[in-house]
Amino acid sequence: MITNQHPKTHAQEIFELRYTAYLDKASISANTQGVFSDPYDMAPNCHSFIEYIEGMPAGSIRACVYQPVRPHLGIPAQELFPEEMEDHIGHEATVVESNKFVVHPTFQHKALRLKFKLFKNVFDKALETGADYIVTSPRATQIDFYRGMQFEAISGVKRSLALDFDVVLMACNLKEARQRVATDPKYKTLRRFGLC
Known about the structure:
Elements: H1 10-24, E1 46-53, E2 56-66, H2 76-80, H3 82-88, E3 95-103, H4 111-129, E4 133-136, H5 143-147, E5 152-159, E6 166-173, H6 174-183, H7 188-192
Parallel strand pairs: 3-4
Antiparallel strand pairs: 1-2, 2-3, 4-6, 5-6
């Protein structure tokens, strides 16, 4: 008997992609649903993006937006790093947080270009919302990648909210970053991808 199969939604593809990527890195425990999501996925200030390679889900990223005019819509960084966010950024700045940044194990060999393409969605969201900062909480082993994109560490190490690894809060002051990227030749890759 032939049955009609409904195509997966973007959300389903993203949650399955996250699950596969995190499980591959032993960052989560296996579950029977084969998906990974959290309450922020349903929040109106959080937006997930997905990139495909040859029709297959290859990578995903999420941008969560904090705006002073909507203080009830928080972002994960404010939950995990409340003191650091208050001390370094405050509550009057508009902030875009990059999180749930994953690449499918099959496409790790193409990860750098894919990561730039994915991260451009975060920079575009920052431009759209007039953000003052972008923040992110990568693993300690990924700090150099973010430093190359004008981020600096503003916290010590803490355990992730839902993942089985330690993270560091990093922030990019967008006004300062754009000035540096516009005038320094070593940032030509960032300019080419429209980052900053």
